What we know:
Layout: H1 5-23, E1 26-32, E2 42-45, E3 51-54, E4 60-63, E5 71-74, E6 81-83, E7 93-96, H2 114-124, H3 126-129, E8 136-150, H4 159-172, E9 178-189, E10 193-203, E11 227-230, E12 233-236, E13 247-257, E14 260-269, E15 278-285, E16 290-298, E17 304-315, E18 319-331, E19 340-354, E20 366-370, H5 379-385, H6 392-408, H7 410-415, E21 424-427, E22 430-433, E23 438-441, E24 445-454, E25 462-471, E26 476-488, E27 493-504, H8 519-524, E28 529-542, E29 546-559, E30 565-566, E31 572-573, E32 576-588, E33 593-596, E34 599-602, E35 610-618, E36 629-642, E37 646-657, E38 671-673, E39 685-689, E40 697-706, E41 720-731, E42 750-764, E43 770-781, E44 793-802
Parallel strand pairs: 1-7, 10-20, 20-33, 38-39
Antiparallel strand pairs: 1-4, 2-3, 2-5, 5-6, 8-9, 8-19, 9-10, 11-12, 13-14, 14-15, 15-16, 16-17, 17-18, 18-19, 21-22, 22-24, 23-24, 24-25, 25-26, 26-27, 27-28, 28-29, 29-32, 30-31, 32-35, 33-34, 35-36, 36-37, 37-40, 40-41, 41-42, 42-43, 43-44
Amino acid sequence: MKNTPASYILFGLFLILSFHTEAQQYVGQILDEHGETLPNVTISWGEDRSQKLISDINGNFTLPHRRFRIVKFELIGYEPSSYRPEDLPSDGKIVLYEKAEALNEVTIFARENPAWRIVRNAVRHKSVNNPNRYDSYRYTSYNKNVITYNFDIDSTMSSADSAEIMADKANAVNRHLLVIESVTKKYYHTPNQHAEEVIGTKISGFENPNIATIPDGIQHFGFYDDYMRLLNKEYLNPIAKGFEDRYAFILQDTTYSGTDTTFIMKYFPTRGSNFEGFEGVIHINSNGWAIEYVTAEPWDKGKISLSMEQRYERVYGGYWFPVQLNFTLELERFPFRKNGAVMIGKTYLDSIYVNVPVPEEKFSHVQVKMREDAGLVDDSFWELRRPTELDPLERETVRHMDSIGERYNLGGVMRSTRHAYRGFLALGPINLDMKRLIASSQYEGLRLGMGVYTNEVISPFISGGGYFGYGFNDERLKYGGEIKLTFDTENDGWFKYEYKNDVRGPGVIGINYWERTSFAEQFYNVRMDRIESHEVMLRSRAWTYHIFEVGAKNFSLTPTYDYAFVNDEGEASTFYQFSEINFGWRWVQDERILANYGQKITTGSKLWPAVRLNYSRGISGIFGSDFDYNKLELGIQFDRFTKNLGRTLISLETGIVDRALPIGMNFGARPSYSSSFSVVVPNSFQAMRFNEFFNSRYVAMYFMHDFRSLLLRSGWFKPEIRIFQGVGYGLLDEPERHLNEDIKDMRYGYYESGLAFDNLIRINLGNMGYFGIGVGAFYRYGPYSFPNTLDNFSLKMAFMLSVN
């Protein structure tokens, strides 16, 4: 047969096509039989299966070519699967089936667990591989959080419950509950300088949302800190020093890539452990003994279960760095429903640069902030930044929720809560002060009122408003108002005039570390001074972590109880006028502040104490003032978590006023005992009565240590133990000028000790967690103990919220 030019052309095309078929890549994804993605599947081919790769955190993989006889997919706990090149599924979906019956693992170590050598190397190299130990880094992240249904039908549920779940199941076929997306830029520089800027945010159903980042305690950046805080608990890292006594490791597999070896291990707390620990899988790479992949979930689960998954790669410069961070937050039951819910979060990091210069102006006291237009970015912004497109269920969720949000103005509802951290509800141009609606104290009885203030809708620079309240026990109206000028939002700079006609307890301690009100002061005080005051104050932040305040105040105090003060002329008086100039300073080094949801929220500092200083100079003869004096207060509060020991809270406080003043201007310590109903209040004297002591100068120490569940843990019974110690010493100058026989000071020293047992009873809170009820017992001793021994004991209730 004669070869024609056409036959040569066809033969050439056949050779090209054959070569292309062998050389082309194969892109796929590995799933289980239920359609869930499987990460870290070992994929091998070639002679002796020497060519290997691992599927990523979402089960994705790419074979570089098809020039092999057999490719094999393997994962512990699943049946292996093998394919010839021509048999690989055209849709790229590789399905592995769970082994029907897995043998129980029996691990016998003749001398020492072989996994220990690997983990010890990882522990030794933690400081080298920990991203937060690098000199600097920066990256861009895309974050997607999907809230969806989680069905776990109880066979004992009613027909109405079953119908409700069936309706939810029908919805779940087409859509999730919510889709949240954000894009952030993160910067870091040693020591402990963090800055994160949200440049785009989108929540299905909510127009122009002003929330973007996931709450603290759900995702942890990196897996190298000895303790990781998740859902308000501190969990011990399995690769912390001393792991041999607390964690069991089982070496399950070893994979190779060039000269690098990856050791795959399972870990879990040893039997009988009482600490908060993880269980999961960890991959350690011999190149630098760094974490390559890790999963972790609490060993002790509760109503809310959190698991996380992290993958690391070597980036430019040879540094190991996280490239994907996933978490799954699972509710056993959705609030007030029979089915559960789950939040699935995925964070993808790119544009990663390690140990490169980061401009100093990127950093400020606010570590997380949002661009003003972050909620207004268009679709093209998301198309450029999504690593993968939204799947059909996610797209339908966005469409469905956007239609509902437009109908019911969900964006407006969210914006109304933007000042909730400070206790305000925003209604258009005004804020309602929810703290003023209802209150109660032994002096006022039930107090009803209202507070109304303007917000940034009217002006971001000027605000004003007022409040009123009426006490049904003292039958008096209280009221006040303010005008505030904000001149530097970046540094919290403002000037304020405030007027009050109200009541306050005598002997107020003015040290407030976190600008929170005193529970004990509000509910238990039986004595009050009427106060009418005019005050101006200028406040601003400087040097990042310092806040300074200067101001002036004119006010009067009138006791509502049996008391009189003998003035310098020897006359007894029950009305006192004061004029002061004031100075305040607050310092919390490395304080973490989040500018999210329209608010600045502090989460404290991991390493440094909170320091608060107040100084007042009283000047007589100005606006009727009767007294010259100097008054100084200083407080230092340490809040630390120590590995294997728990949390320690220590407050050291002192104050001095340099001349005799009416009793309301002295220091009354921090009592929290009530004979009717008492609650354990940290940073207070648990067995001290209200208005029992008054001092012109004093020192006090409040100590609390919380062992959490480190001492006792047995199934559902999870009591937590706290120990307390309080010590106080003080002197009252010229006590003879105070005409009241009940007034005394702490000149001989006040001492008390106690224990609190939390979570003795745990009540399910709508499937969102537990409300724990416990008891505290305290005993006062020393010079101020009572003659009757039983009177020295203080029994209190202890309340706690937890998720497991």
